[in-house]
Amino acid sequence: MTTNQSHWEKVYQTRNYDAVSWYAPHLSESLRLIGELCPRKDSAIVDIGGGESTFVDDLLAQGYTDLSVLDISCAAIDFTKKRLGANAGNVNWCVGDITEYDFKGKTFDLWHDRAVFHFLTDGAKRAAYTNLVKNSVKQGGHVVMATFGPEGPLKCSGLDVVRYDERKLHGEFGDKFKLMGSQTNQHATPSGATQQFLYCWCKVA
């Protein structure tokens, strides 16, 4: 197990799912965007860093039938599978480091990442991530990214993060990705603090 994996296993094993700073009962902005960008219920959607989020629950409830969830933590994936019960069998579960992961030819209509990419402080790791996106999202597919915005925190869960504005985040992905829109919003943490998030959504040329 890598140092990075050990860190996240400890986080999920020692903290309640609704006590971590990124917790939200429902990812309303992500759900809105996916409803607009991928209205077909058979769209192949992958959630990066899904962890213990209820996002996959909400997508299942909305009728989506081709869902994948990836997280670096086995504990997080196991928790979510138990919460879903029989519905867990309707999801493709993936455990691994996104900068090293192999989807084995599986491609997606939409790639969703809320609060993973900003942890990649090493340029080589970011390049590995964006290359995987390029190879995994279908032509005409979409990418929805949410990172800390320019006024967001400098650290999260004890780790350094990278803050982004629209231009900087889009620049990491390149011309193959056509920026369709962006916005910032304030996330209220369980402790009562606020964090600025930047949402950007792109179409793959």
Report on this structure.
By secondary structure, the chain is of the alpha/beta class. The protein has a single domain (3-204), classed as 3-Layer(aba) Sandwich (Rossmann fold). Helices cover 30% and strands 30% of the residues. It contains 6 helices and 9 strands. Helix 3 (55-61) links the parallel strand 1 (44-48) and strand 2 (66-71).
| Beta-strand percent range | 25-35%
Number of domains: 1
> What is the topology, as strand order, of the major beta sheet?
3-2-1-4-5-9-8
Major beta sheet, specifics?
A: 7 strands, mixed
Distance between the termini: 37 Å
- CATH class annotation: Alpha Beta
Question: What's the helix and strand layout?
Answer:
Blueprint: H1 3-14, H2 28-37, E1 44-48, H3 55-61, E2 66-71, H4 74-84, E3 91-95, E4 108-114, H5 123-136, E5 137-148, E6 155-156, E7 159-160, H6 166-173, E8 177-188, E9 194-204
Parallel strand pairs: 1-2, 1-4, 2-3, 4-5
Antiparallel strand pairs: 5-9, 6-7, 8-9
Brief summary:
The chain has helices at 3-14, 28-37, 55-61, 74-84, 123-136, 166-173; strands at 44-48, 66-71, 91-95, 108-114, 137-148, 155-156, 159-160, 177-188, 194-204.
Summary keywords:
single chain, 205 residues, Rossmann fold, two-stranded antiparallel ribbon, 9 strands, 30% helix, globular
